[in-house]
């Protein structure tokens, strides 16, 4: 199951790279905020139909959840707008590598401190070296322009 999960997140990462490549030109045509709205609207419609056919039959009321559970709904559009604006300016590879560097840095903190009710996974030297290698990749990609 661990290898399947890893494969799925790699495929999802490829999807994000594709999304960045699509959003830049779309944002240039319709505007960055409208492009983001189009992407989220399409995704919302898809998830609505998936939820109808495959979702839980007794969903939990969102009013009973802690507010931070829903904060991703605020972060997602910010992320997509930034990706839409940045990709045409700095390129898809640099955009995605920068996003990856930020994701890994914050993820290490979340794992280390066990934020958001996650299991604690202490940061060790291997993880720090991995982050440094990603930062090095970003520097190499940025220097290639």
UniProtKB/TrEMBL annotation:
Transmembrane annotation, as ranges: 33-55, 67-90, 96-116, 128-144
Domain of life (superkingdom): Bacteria
Listed InterPro entries: YdcZ
Keywords: Membrane, Transmembrane, Transmembrane helix
Coiled coil start-end: none
Family annotation (PANTHER family): INNER MEMBRANE PROTEIN YDCZ
Protein name per Swiss-Prot or TrEMBL: DMT family transporter
């Amino acid at each position: 199951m661990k290898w399947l999960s890893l494969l799925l997140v790699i495929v999802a990462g490829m999807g994000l790279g594709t999304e960045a490549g699509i959003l830049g030109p779309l944002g240039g045509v319709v505007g960055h905020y409208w492009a983001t709205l189009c992407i989220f609207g399409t995704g919302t419609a898809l998830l609505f139909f998936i939820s109808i056919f495959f979702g839980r039959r007794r969903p939990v009321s969102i009013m009973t959840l802690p507010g931070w559970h829903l904060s991703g709904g605020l972060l997602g559009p910010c992320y997509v707008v930034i990706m839409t604006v940045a990709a045409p300016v700095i390129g898809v590879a640099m955009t995605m590598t920068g996003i990856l560097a930020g994701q890994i840095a914050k993820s290490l903190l979340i794992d280390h401190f066990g934020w958001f009710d996650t299991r604690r996974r202490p940061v060790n030297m291997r993880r720090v070296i991995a982050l440094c290698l990603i930062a090095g990749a970003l520097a190499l990609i940025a220097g290639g322009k």
